[in-house]
Amino acid sequence: MAHPHESTVLELPLPARRHQTLGLVLIRRLAGYGLHDARATMLALDAAGGEFRKLLVLTRALVVDLARTSKRRIKLAPCCATGMTRDEGLVMAMIDGAGLDVHGVLTDDGDCPAAMTTAHALGRELTRIATRNGWRH
User: Fold this and answer.
1) What is the value of pTM for the model shown?
2) Does some domain include residue 96?
3) Stretch 91-109: mean pLDDT, rounded?
4) How many angstroms separate the Cα of 118 from the Cα of each of 8, 30, 81, 136?
5) Dihedral of alpha carbons 96, 107, 76, 45, sign
6) Closest CA to 113 of 49, 70, 81
7) What is the pLDDT of residue 1?
8) How far apart are CA 45 and CA 108, in angstroms?
9) What is the mean pLDDT of residues 21-49?
10) Looking at the domain assignment, is residue 77 inside a domain?
């Protein structure tokens, strides 16, 4: 994945839903600062409580799957950016349930759609957390 401090164009607004923004920030932190980033862990703990490990494991798996299967650099914005890159929009679409067409565009038809399966599982976990916390949908 691209280093988060590389020049990126923020073509898209941040996701409208709190749980989607949480997922985006976790991805940015883990991709940019390492899979064991303490701030990402604290964000997951704050959102998911005692069940935070599942959220972290799924997010880490998605970051690793995308990095391993993509044939190109995926551009990410810094954690505090007020918008999303095109690539981040594609990742968020995968998390929201998009199919192989989005995976193909994001990874330049990377060999394995494992990232898509992981993205869908992460999307279900984020939705479960949002429902449990009473965040508006």
Assistant:
1) 0.90
2) yes
3) 89
4) 25, 15, 24, 24
5) positive
6) 70
7) 58
8) 34
9) 97
10) yes
Report the sign of the C-alpha dihedral through residues 89, 46, 79, 33, in that order. Answer: negative
Of residues 59, 14, 13, 8, the one with CA closest to residue 36? 59
| Chain centroid to CA 61 | 10
| Containing structural domain, residue 85 | 16-133
pLDDT tens string 110-119: 666 788 899 9
Residue 59 falls inside a structural domain: yes
Q: If residue 133 lies in a helix (H) or strand (E), which one and from where to where?
A: helix 114-133
Write down the pLDDT at residue 8. Answer: 64
The number of folded domains in the chain is: 1
**Inside any domain, residue 6:** no
Render 49-113 in DSSP notation, one character per residue.
Answer: GGGHHHHHHHHHHHHHHHHHH-SSPPP---TT-SEE-HHHHHHHHHHTT--HHHHHHHHTS-S-T
Does residue 12 have a pLDDT over 50? yes
pLDDT digits (tens, 9 = 90+) for 60-81: 999 999 999 899 999 999 998 9
Q: Which of 121, 135, 99, 101 is nearest to 22 (CA)?
A: 135
Neighbours of 118 (CB within 10 A): 22
